[in-house]
Every structure is written in C-alpha cells, then in structure tokens.
Amino acid sequence: MSDLYLRQFRLTITPESGTGKSWTGLRCKFDITKTSDDIPNNGKITIYNLNDDSRSLLKDVEKKPKCKFEVGYSGKEENFNIDSILKTILLGDVIKVTDSYKRPDRNTTIEIGDGQKALAESKSNEGYKKGTPIKTIVIDQLKKLGVDLGEYVQQQVTDIMKSDSTAGYYSATGMTKDVLRVILKKYGKSFSIQNNEVILDPEIHSQEAQVLSYGTGLLEEPVKNSDGSISFKALINTDVYPGATIEFQTEKTTGQYAVDNVSFTGDTRGNEWYMMGETVADEQQ
Q1: Cβ neighbour number for residue 94 with a 10 Å cutoff
Q2: Prior bond to 40 cis, omega within 30?
Q3: Per CATH, is 206-284 categorized as 3.40.50?
Q4: Of the N and C termini of the chain, which has fewer Cβ atoms inside 10 Å?
Q5: Distance between CA atoms of 247 and 259, rounded to whole angstroms?
Q6: 242 vs 201: CA distance, rounded Å
Q7: Could you tell me which residues come within 8 angstroms of residue 27 by beta carbon, excluding any fewer than 6 positions away?
Q8: Are 134 and 165 in contact, with CB atoms under 8 Å apart?
Q9: Domain range summary for the chain, segments of one domain joined by +
C-alpha cells in the first residue's frame, strides 16, 4: 500500500478524423460507473483551466471523438515513466462537453459513454440458414458492435453454445444489442462492454485475481449483503472492473469473487480517490 500515492492521470481525446491530444498534470476530478449490464458505462471527467484551443478540441463533438482516461500512482519513483504507471480506467465515446467558470478556475466537464456508439447505433439485418451454429451467429453479431472481441470471449461463446444450431431459418434484425440479448438470455448469459471490449457474464478466474486487503488499498471491511453479494471500498485499482476477479484477504472476509459493478471517484488534488463496488450475488456465481 505504501506505493499507492502521488496520483497521476492522462486524458486523451482522439477525433474520428484528425489529430488527437493528451493532457496531464492539471487538476482533474472524475466519477465513473461500470456495471455488467448491456448498457453503456458512463463517466464524468472535469479538468481545470484548459486553454482555449484545448476546450475547442474537446467541444467539437461532431467529430465523434473517443476519450481514453488513464490513472495510476507514481509512488516513491522520482523519475517515473508515465506510460509505465498508467492504466485505462475508461475508454469511450464523448457524449457532451460543458464549461463552467468559478473564480479562479474554469472547468471543462466531459461526459463519456463506454460503448455508447456501439450500443446506440449498431443495427442488424442478417438471415441465417437452417443448421447455422448458434456460436457463429453470436460472434457475427458481437463483431457488428465494432468493439474489441478477444480470443477468450470467442472461446466462451463456443463453450456455452457448444454444437447448437438453428432449427430453421433465423432472422437477426433490429438493434444488434437486442439480437444478442435474446440469444444469450436463452443460455442464461448476458454481455457488457468494458473499455471498448466485450465481456460476457462475470466469472471467477483464480490466476488473475486482484487481492483486496488492508495492505493493497482496502479502506473498509467488506460487507456481505442479503443476496450474498459483497460490497467493498478501496483505493482505486484499474484492474477491478465488472467481470474481473477479486480476492478478499482480511480476518473476517476471504475468498475469490467476480465483480458485478464498481464506481470510481477521484480528485488529483483533493481527498477523494477510491472505488466502491459489489461482487456478483451468490446465485449468479
């Protein structure tokens, strides 16, 4: 825990066409909420005292910019490489940018939706002949979202759908997220987008567990809820997100759990710098 201090951030805006720009070193406040639902994760990031050119770039939402927000700790490193300490906490589409002025500061607030464009705009209009593997349809539709689809997710789909195929002609029409929702629900599954990457239902992966203890940033004793989920509060760890595995290591709480939802609150020059989340309920583990 001794290295979890001296907070750092980098905000990068990349227009659909044109040159992007990054900012760091200024005061920055943020609130980010992530869930395992098939709706966009959302965040508000406020950055202080940008110059006029930077504000103009941010406010040109018509260019459909992407926003990448990274945070980390420099700790006791005096001459640190910022690329080595930062990890992405939110990657998404810029939805809205507003300015406010409160002496002596001028604040620019960016609202971001992770997978906003993919979930709101992607439409399907495909037909599949009798005998088409269900996994083929699901992977096709996931690719239509235009977000990252790793080998692991494709293997998950294969494991879930096995050799199942369509009993007749299958029409996949409408919003792509709805097509996916209908198919996955039949298998008791759902999907979400985390930092522009598809994640299926949270599962426990022991080898990738993030340890939460009082020595690694845990701030309060975890609380077990009536549905079997566990609520927790800790210093920000960007490797904790819906679908990730965490391992509690306190005298009262131990074991590995899949994360269902988590929110991040931070201020690079204030007291707030923590995450609050819940694990998947018992019946869903």
Answers
A1: 23
A2: no
A3: no
A4: N
A5: 10
A6: 9
A7: 47, 48, 49, 105, 267, 268, 269
A8: yes
A9: 7-117, 121-194, 206-284
DSSP assignment letter at 177: H
Query: pTM for the whole thing?
Result: 0.90
3-class SS at 157? helix
pLDDT by residue (tens digit) across 119-146?
999 999 999 999 999 999 999 999 999 8
**Residues 236, 237, 243, 247, CA torsion sign:** negative
CA separation for the pair 70, 87 (Å, rounded): 5
Single out the residue of 76, 51, 64 nearest to residue 117, CA to CA: 64
CB 183 within 8 A of CB 157: no
| Spatial separation of the C-alpha atoms in residues 134 and 196, rounded to whole Å | 24
Q: What is the pLDDT of residue 206?
A: 59
Select from 92, 119, 117 the least CA-distant residue to 33: 92
Torsion of CA 112, 117, 121, 125, to 10 degrees: -150
Output the six-digit token pair for 75.
């700790």
